[in-house]
Design brief:
Length: 151
């Protein structure tokens, strides 16, 4: 006879139930993924701002990356000469953002300017926190690094 015994089938079903219960609890914690997505999207947006500054190096108008926190979302905007070039909005899912050790309050923002050399001139440590923390270092050279700033 070929096939599985009843004990083997019940064991497999019990293991599948345990694994699916564990996996679903990970997906129920939305803010863990929200902070990761927010950090990665900000790194990508910072890279776009730096590229825009390099592409428009002859312009006297700096490229400005704005990070805005509302009650439910984070918004990243790239603007130059008062014109919005790119805007991204992400769900906060209960997470919060600290910039250089200070928590950003709802309705507040930070503006980071890129000069004609695509540099910010100031290093900023950004930490997205929820059930976990995701750090991003925006160096004075304008480059975004995943993780904490050195020194």
């Amino acid at each position: 006879m070929k096939g599985f015994t009843l004990v083997e089938l019940v064991t497999v079903i019990a293991l599948m139930a345990a694994l699916s219960g564990f996996a679903s609890s990970l997906f129920m914690q939305g803010d863990g993924f929200a902070t990761l997505a927010a950090r990665d999207q900000l790194a990508a947006t910072a890279s776009l701002a730096q590229q825009r500054a390099l592409a428009n190096a002859t312009s006297t108008s700096p490229v400005v990356l704005s990070v805005i926190q509302s009650a439910n979302s984070w918004q990243y905007t790239i603007a130059q000469s008062g014109t919005t070039v790119v805007s991204h909005q992400l769900d906060r899912s209960g997470g919060f953002l600290s910039i250089d050790g200070s928590t950003l309050s709802n309705g507040n923002s930070i503006d980071i300017s890129y000069d004609e050399y695509a540099m910010t001139g100031v290093t900023h440590q950004l930490v997205f926190s929820g059930t976990n923390s995701q750090a991003l270092c925006l160096g004075a050279t304008g480059i975004a690094y995943l993780g904490n700033c050195e020194g």
